[in-house]
Structures are given as structure tokens and as C-alpha cells.
Amino acid sequence: MRRTLIRIVRYFVLKPAALVAWLAALVVVVALIIIAPMYIGTIPGLSQLRPQSAPAAAEEYLRGNRDYNADLVWNSLDSDAQSRLASQGGSRDDLQQQMDAARQKGVQLAEMAYIGGKSLPDGTSMQFYLVGIRQQTGSNIDYQPYMFTLDRDGKIAKVQ
Predict the structure, then answer these.
(1) In 10-124, where do the E strands start and end?
(2) What's the predicted TM-score (pTM) here?
């Protein structure tokens, strides 16, 4: 080990250009490691590798369903979605009654996993989740895909 170290030092003392080239290469590698995360999203195909954060409105909607909290669900909807529900005779109170009935039947939102999202040219976005629902206490979990359409403000316009 000591001999190898002495040979390396001697090599760089006798050939300083090699030392400068090696140090320059090291600086370039360190710079790429530091700068790459800022530009990884602009490289086609690599933007999907960057983790996306789950949208707040969809998380509130699902948390509201898990906790049987109609206020969270209602407030996660945009005004148009709230108006559509109201025009069909629905309200925040009706939503709470439905959630209370689901709780009494043992229906439970057991798992939720954010898969990802896609921004659309009009400023809206589509968000995808996999949700595990248990129909009765002790029953198996049934996994269902959920797709949220978010408006420009990040509120839920549609749930599928």
C-alpha cells in the first residue's frame, strides 16, 4: 500500500499535467452531481424518475373518506363540483350522513397510494391513486384505481 502511494505521488510530481487533468475531471464530476438534479426533468424520459408530491386536495379527499369527515371531502372539491352535487340534491350534511352509514356498515378506506400525475395544457391536471377499501371489518382489501381531475387552483373538479 505504501509503495503504491509513493508511486502515485512520484507520477504526479514528474507529470504535473496529469495531476491537473485528474483534478479537472474530478471537478467536472462533482459539478455534474450537483447540477444534474436541476436539469433531470428536462431530459426526455427521465422526468418520470423524479418523485412527485401528492396534491393536497386529493389527499384531503381521501383522508376525509378514511376518517369519515365530510368537511374535508367537501372542501377539497372546487366550486363547480360542489354546485353539481347541490343541484342533484346533495350537501355537506348529506355527505356526512352517507359517511356515517358507511362507517356503521364497516366500510373502511384502508390504504391509499399516490401513483402520479400529469399536468394538462389547459392548466388542469390528472392525478392517479390506488385505494384499498375494506367492505366489512376483517374482510379482504379490494383495490380500486381513483383518478382525480384537478382545476387550475388544485381543487378537485371530478373524481372517477
Answers:
(1) 108-119
(2) 0.68
Would you mind telling me the total number of residues written for the chain in this entry? 160
Torsion of CA 29, 33, 37, 40, to 10 degrees: 30
List 141's β-bridge partners, or say none: 134
Q: Cell triple for residue 99?
A: 359517511
The candidate with the shortest Cα–Cα distance to 112, out of 62, 75, 43, 76, is: 62
**Positive or negative: CA dihedral 48, 51, 57, 59:** positive
Angle at 141 between CA 136 and CA 144, to 5 degrees: 115
User: 68-118 pLDDT, tens per residue?
Assistant: 999 999 999 999 999 998 999 888 999 999 999 999 999 999 999 999 999
Task: Using alpha carbons, select from 10, 159, 40, 49 the residue that is nearest to residue 95.
Answer: 159
46 vs 40: CA distance, rounded Å: 6
